[in-house]
Design goal:
This protein is of the alpha/beta class. It has 16 helices and 19 strands. The protein has a domain of 178 residues: FAD/NAD(P)-binding domain.
């Protein structure tokens, strides 16, 4: 087995270069480890790839920055300032909701303006909105501030939190939590969508995830100028400046172990690299099934795949337009007529519904560089069943869904889209499974329900292999950029520094 440059310092291998892997690599390097990042794709970023076609640029995955301090911390590890490399620009409004009857609702930072927006629909909801903020803050103070960067390795870690969780009524769904304060059907729907941002159904996801609402109010909603891909590139450059080795098209096939320790990894081409510790930024169900030696099992509660709940799948349509839609916000939530019934079909009934709700991302509203002059760049995200739905033929339905989405947007949000759309392509859950090794093509790994949160999620350190750690959407604290970057902080807290620490 080989070591980088025969360096005697402890060697850490990070499998996968999504945001959790990048953050882990940087934190390990700051602790004095030699670090090698192995990425099976041709570029870093994991699901945060960048697509370019016909002069249009598209971020493949995450588009929103809601906790910028998490990235500031990574630069500070090396005595640098994030602002010198990456610009986070506030978005206004944060989200625009477009309802089926043409009504629109802007959700943004200015509290007075927001309450006026709510009052257009319901004076009572406007008066009670600050009560929702206060309740969300109480959840945030526990779920994010106290617990998001703490390991949950044992059931006892979860048991200790039960009194607080009961006090916060974590047994309620996000939908029921919001409904305690907001009654107008459109406003209640608008403020219940946050679980969908991390792969959960608002009607079944624990109200713990209502903390996302206060997280947005605490730090705002930002966009990375140049796109999320720019943030990935700059984090890679930060790593390279500090001697992290990035290897692309390096597919890890097997974890090598001796006793209860990982000693290295074997790549698909047969090459073996040794390691003093391994951090897996992979979908844990896939890692345990395909990479982990067979005599090591996944946590008992997650061994039976049929009993595990996974997030929905995602259909993502990318396209350019030969005109600009100046009145379309950066982020638009296009709400279909149905809500609860639609989500039930997607999450529980494994049906591809005849209708949909959409997330419409127009980065050119903030950064014109995403498209040629006079044009716009878009991606449209549509929740769909994951690949457990065996009756959906995506080789057929991919094109059908594209046509239905384009027709609906052409009739509403994007007039004449059918005649101005260019350079369109799409990803289905099949591509998520193939390209990102996502179990069942799920968009966000296992679902964020209470029975799969904290100690009930895949742990950040394996129970049997003492130097194998996990980061990313399938581990604690969960999906979304704040979640996966925080998972690296969890792992960081469990790994000691080496004696010869990097001097900055």
């Amino acid at each position: 087995m080989s070591r980088p440059d025969n360096n005697p310092d402890p060697h850490a291998i990070v499998v996968g270069s999504g945001f959790g892997g990048l953050a882990s690599a940087l934190r390990l390097r700051a602790k004095g480890y030699q670090v090698t990042v192995l990425e099976r794709l041709a570029a870093a970023g994991g699901r945060a790839q960048v697509f370019e076609k016909g002069g249009f640029r598209h971020d493949a995955g995450p588009t929103v920055i809601t906790a910028p301090f998490l990235f500031d911390e990574l630069y500070e590890l090396f005595g640098e300032s994030r602002e010198n490399h990456v610009e986070f620009t506030p978005v206004d409004p944060w989200y625009r909701f477009h309802f089926e009857d043409g009504d629109e609702f802007d959700y943004g930072e200015d509290l007075i303006q927001l309450k006026q927006e709510i009052a257009r629909f319901s004076a009572e909801d406007s008066e009670r909105y600050e009560e929702l903020i206060s309740a969300s803050k109480k959840i945030f103070d526990v779920g994010f501030t106290k617990l998001s960067d703490k390991p949950f390795l044992h059931l006892s870690d979860m048991v200790r939190q039960i009194p607080q969780l009961l006090k916060l009524r974590a047994d309620r769904s996000v939908w029921n939590f919001v409904g305690k304060f907001l009654k107008h059907p459109k406003i209640r729907r608008a403020f219940s969508i946050h679980p969908l941002l991390v792969g959960g159904n608002p009607f079944t996801t624990s109200s713990i995830y209502a903390l996302i609402h206060y997280l947005e109010r605490e730090w705002g909603v930002h966009f990375t100028m140049g796109g999320t891909g720019k943030l990935v590139d700059e984090l890679v450059r930060l790593g390279e400046r500090n001697q992290i080795d990035f290897r692309y098209e390096s597919d890890v096939e097997k974890l090598i172990t001796e006793g209860q320790r990982a000693t290295g990894v074997q790549l698909a081409d047969g090459e073996v690299l040794d390691a003093d510790l391994v951090v897996a930024n992979c979908d844990p169900p896939v890692f345990y099934k395909e990479i982990m030696p067979s005599h090591f099992k996944a946590p008992l509660r997650l061994q039976h795949d049929s009993l595990v709940q996974y997030s929905m799948g995602l259909y993502v349509l990318y396209f350019g337009t030969q005109r600009k839609y100046e009145d379309v916000a950066h982020h638009t939530i296009w709400m279909g007529e149905r809500f609860k019934g639609l989500l039930a079909e997607i999450f529980a009934e494994d049906k591809l519904p005849p209708d949909f709700s959409l997330y419409v991302h127009r980065p050119t509203a903030t950064d014109p560089s995403f498209a040629p002059e006079g044009c716009d760049s878009f991606y449209v995200l549509c929740p769909v069943p994951n690949l457990r739905a065996k009756n959906i033929d995506w080789s057929v339905e991919g094109k059908n869904l594209r046509d239905r989405i384009v027709a609906s947007l052409s009739d509403t949000l994007l007039p004449d889209l059918e005649s101005t759309i260019v350079e369109d392509f799409w990803m289905t859950p099949k591509e998520f499974k193939k390209d990102y090794r996502s179990a069942h093509g799920a968009g966000f790994s296992i679902a964020p329900v209470l029975s799969q949160s904290a100690s009930f999620r895949y742990p950040n350190r394996d129970a049997h292999v003492e130097n194998l750690f996990f980061v990313g959407a399938g581990t604690h604290p969960g999906a979304g950029l704040p979640g996966v970057v925080s998972s690296a902080k969890v792992v960081d807290s469990m790994i000691p520094s080496v004696e010869k620490k990097i001097h900055v």
